[in-house]
Amino acid sequence: MTLTLYFREYCSLCHTMLAELTPWKERYGFALNVVDVDADPVLEQRFNEWVPVLMEGETEICHYHLDTQRLAAHLGEIS
Predict the structure, then answer these.
(1) 18: helix, coil or strand?
(2) Are 62 and 51 a contacting pair, CB within 8 Å?
(3) Is the pTM of this model over 0.90?
């Protein structure tokens, strides 16, 4: 499984979510692509102020803050 974190370098919420994802990544072994939305005008327009956004493909798992319940459900863990 590959998750994508849409991110901005200057965004403190983005850095927080990235750090919070580390133990999840280690536990579940998913790949994590970190994409800077400011590097692509299409992504910048699409996500604008919604970052950080965690997605698998076109499925949004959460935005702004890591929603551990939604992530666990997405990864197949019963809370």
Answers:
(1) helix
(2) no
(3) yes
